[in-house]
Specification:
The complex is a heterodimer of chains A (278) and B (332). Chain A has 278 residues and is an alpha/beta fold. Chain A is built from seven helices and 13 strands. In chain B, helix 3 packs across helix 4 and helix 5 runs parallel beside helix 9. Chain B starts with 19 loop residues before the first strand and ends with a helix. Classes of the chains: A alpha/beta (278), B alpha/beta (332).
Amino acid sequence: MKILVPIKRVIDPYIAIRIDKDELHVVSENIPHAMNPFDETALSEAAALKNALPELEIEIIVASIGPAATKETLRTALAMGADRAIHVLCKQPLEPLAIAKLLKILVDEIKPDLVFMGKQSADGDNGQTGPMLAGLLDWPQACSASSILLHEKQVPEDGFGTVGPGLARLILEKEEENDPDAIIVISEVENGLASRVLTLPALVTCDTRLNTPKPLSLAQVMKAKHSLIEQRKSSDMTTELTPRLAIVKISEPPQRPPCQIFDQASELVAQLRKRDLL
Amino acid sequence: MSNTPSNAPAKVPEKVLGRVLVLADHDHQSLSPFTPRMVSAAQSFDLPVDLLVAGNDCSPVANQAASFDGIEQVLLTDREELITAGAEDLCALLVPLLQDTYDVLLTPANGLGRDLVPRLAAQLDVSPLSDVTRIIEPDLFERPIHAGAALVQIRLSEAKKLMTLRAGNFPPMKLRDDKQAPAKLVSLDDKALASRKSKLIGEEFFWEQPSLETASVVIGVGGGAQDKENFALIENLMAQFDASLGGTRLALELGMVPNNELIGQTGRTIAPKLYIALGISGAVQHLAGIRDAQVIIAINKDPDAPIFKVADYGLVGDLREVLPELQKALVL
């Protein structure tokens, strides 16, 4: 089973961003970058499934589109357990639709059974690339996964989210007999959880709550240092990448007035009454 | 690029057709509070507005929708397979509607909208916008990036404008007055749906409360509210304010609120009249979800907690002491 995990290199989401003087960019030069945490979760899930289910012979391919520095992120991905890494060199920033089109070209070549990716990037917060890629491929999709079930071995005794153990085994046994062609994904929705059966090939976007990525060992990092990263160029990949969106202005959110601290709860209540908030 | 006919991008006609379609958000029985807010946002385009109700046994929803002002037609497609309508089904229904009739599609930025709009946009070969918080001009929109640390204004020149809206940021549309006839109902039941490659097999609802996105008062709990002694106090406060309850990632991990009620970048984004943060320190990821609240009250024992940087009003102290005082003051 082949799992493709597209990953994005983003400005470290745990540091404060700075808006450029031109008000059109977020400053990214000389700023620490990291793997998009949602993609990190997706990759970490693929690696955990590979270890837990040797019978599926899972091969993990990671791909990232971006400038030369993107290779660092791909090294981290190799250290996390990816078997192959593909870097698509592209100097200009791309919109989600263009990324999805480039990824479609890779999917058509690699022919994975599954694509796992973050449900959104921590910079643009669009959450578009996953469902766009599924739409371009006409594949089924499940977004914001909180559990991914590929094999009946993974079904716990008391069932699996909203799927009772009987039903989950039935569905996945059926999968065993035919080729592995059905998986169960449990996604978080507004009111709770929704379980879906997806026919492979399929695309799953992952929430950070799916797992907690383990810290890397020195041995993993050293090994990945010498692994091959396959090099491609977006300009060699025939698809239309022109931007469709024009950024007019980037600004900080309006400053809220300074916080008024009250000594007594009664003073707070009086203020709320005054502002007609009760 | 190897394109099979089934996944080739659909051709979008050049001519301007000029209608707005709002996807109704409902539970097959009644409209969610998102829908009237999207209808009011839809008026910003200065085009006729129609509403699509897709579901099973959902004609009451369509009738309810027809009573809102600002809607010309309610399109209804009512069939059993739509009880579990997902992005794939709705794409099959919406691609021809957007090719032939509509220039704008608005959905709420909830699970369904976030799944549907990018998929549909890719099939129409257009760039959509996610989580729009403000419509400045009919082609100029504002949305947050970097977990709300910045706002970006984007000019969208696509012939077809598809977007998810943070509905809580728009005022609700009023009902038609008695003299006005309800909006016209149009059936779409003859339209084909997609062949299913994904199927919903179960849903589990944790609890019932007014949705965090549309509740007028939301109480948020963090790690600092964990003490069991606080729970009854928080419950009382919820009753006093008629509030919905959400929490931080830590509150979730401590099992204080169900997973789906996480407020923040990875969870829900709220815009209530009043947000009351209890024992919440104010991590960037949480603040991303509460920036649009009109008034934020923070109660925390640490006076240096970052939550006080965004709060309007604060009380510094232990919840076990502050909450009973607050409750007493509220009933006076």
